[in-house]
Structures are given as C-alpha cells and as structure tokens.
Amino acid sequence: MFDLSGRVAMVTGASRGLGRADALALAAAGADVILTDLLVESDPAIEETAARSDSVMAQVMASQGGVHTEATAAEIRELGRRSVAIQLDVTDRQRVREVFDQVVEDYGSLDILVNSAGVSDHLGQIMDLSPELWHRDLEVNLTGAFNCTQAAWPHMRMRNYGRLIYKSTVSALQGGFGHASVATTGAGVLGLMRSMALEGARHRITSNAVVAGAIETEGFRTSPPSTVDRMVLRTATRELGRPEDIAAAVCYLASTEAAYVTGVALPVAGGPDLFTF
Ligand SMILES: NC(=O)c1ccc[n+]([C@@H]2O[C@H](COP(=O)([O-])OP(=O)(O)OC[C@H]3O[C@@H](n4cnc5c(N)ncnc54)[C@H](O)[C@@H]3O)[C@@H](O)[C@H]2O)c1
User: Fold this and answer.
1) What's this model's pTM, rounded to 2 decimal places?
2) Domain ranges of the chain
3) For 245, which of 96, 193, 216, 241 could close a Cys bridge (C-beta 3.0–4.6 Å)?
C-alpha cells in the first residue's frame, strides 16, 4: 500500500490482536519490525509473568498457546525483513529505555513507534470497578505509552524524523457504559498524542491515534455476547472490524505520504457516531 522500505518500526503489544496485525502490515509494506510484548513464547516463566501482570487475559493466553510474538517475528523474517521479538513490559521504564536504545544501536534508527500494548479486561459499572485494576490500567495503557514515547523521542529527534502512533477507543470520545476504565485511559492517550503532535511538529515527528471501534481480537472476545451484539447494532456497517482494518490505518499514518497529518484521532470504527435517531 505504502512503501516503508528502509524504515524501522517498533510495535508494543505485538503478540496478538491489533499489535500483531500492525507488525505484519508494516512488514508487508517494507519496514523492518521489532515486536515487543509482555509475553514471548520462549519465556520459561511465561505463566508467572502473566500472573504478575494481574490480567486474566494474559494468563489464559500464556496457558493456552495464545502467544505469537516470536512466531510473528519469524513470519516477518520470511518476508525478507529484519525482525526480532523482545520480551518487554511497557510499565518497566528502565527496561523500556534499555530496549529502545539497543534497538537503535542494532538497527540504526527508530522511525515508527506503534503503541498497541494494552489491557481491556476490566469492565463493569462504577461500583464494580477495582481500584487496583484501575491503577493497573493507567499504568499499562497510559503510562506505558508515555514510557515508550519518552524512550523513542531522543532517537526520532536526533534524526529529525518520526511517526508516533497510538491506539485509542471510541469510548474515549463518547464514553462507554461499563467501560469507564478503558474510556479514561483511551482519553488520556489522546491528550498525550495531541501534545506530542505539537512538540514534534518542528522536528518532523508526527503523532496520531487510531481510534478503534469494535474490532474482533482475542482481547475483544472476552466481552459478553450481549455487549458485542449491542456494539454491532451501533455501527453503521453492522459488523465487527478486523485487525487488518486498523493495521491499514497504521500503515498510512506511518508513511511518508502522511507527513502533513498530525494530531489526528482517526476513527476506524464502522461509523458508530452517525446516528441522530
Ligand atoms: N480490539 C478492540 O476492539 C479495541 C478497541 C479499541 C481500543 N483497543 C485498544 O487497542 C489496544 C490493543 O487491543 P487488542 O484488542 O489488540 O488487545 P489484546 O488484549 O488482544 O492485545 C494486547 C497485547 O498487549 C500485551 N500487553 C498487555 N500488557 C502489557 C504490558 N504491560 N507490556 C507489554 N505488553 C502488554 C498483551 O500481551 C497483548 O499481546 C489496547 O490498548 C486496546 O484497549 C482495542
């Protein structure tokens, strides 16, 4: 679609779902891709790592073979691109910095950062939300994106080029019944994204977010069927989106052609806000 040859991309949360699809699409467009995730297949302590993250989803994936970080990197190498899978918890600031610096040393640059690591398994109305998981959601979804942005920034700034891409959700724009935690962290991400667009503009660093609707990923499948039905009925297209729909937008925002697009929260959501009655 767009030619990303010679670009080096880092995708967080690339083991599955949106991050995995982004990594494959960026590679298909020509980029070398570093996949990072809390979970990698060869981690001998993968189940303990998943348990420590306090995410039921991570525990299910770790115990049921739902982790594809290294397999996806291998798939990308078969396309003829450079690719590696790295175990990285985005909440671990020190390690985030070390990994990003090492990647630039090994690959020569870091041109594209896709922040896709996230947790979205903390649903419920206000009195059912847990303060511990609220804090976890802020740490992973918002502070994680902040940590990765700070680690990428000096490298992008030095080369006077960069593409920062964030993930947010339509509930960040509209609110979401039973989705306060996901909506709030998603809204925070948009604040970070727009501020980076302003600070990056003079350095040819663009910053944008893909605002995802109901996209069929492993994470999304944890939603109760009644919620899924309601979400589908709320879209103009009357269907769930696919991770590839998000990845196509990511490739556009990562491209040279999108140089004049910055500070944008781009909905890829099937038109959930089009109804007036
Ligand atoms: N799928 C959707 O419908 C949808 C809609 C709107 C927004 N989003 C957002 O997009 C992002 C990705 O969504 P998804 O559906 O692919 O989710 P997912 O749960 O399928 O995948 C998330 C990935 O992030 C990784 N991860 C979790 N905690 C991490 C940490 N601390 N450090 C590093 N990696 C970590 C997981 O291991 C997993 O591979 C999330 O932030 C989600 O909230 C998704």
Assistant:
1) 0.98
2) 8-268
3) 241
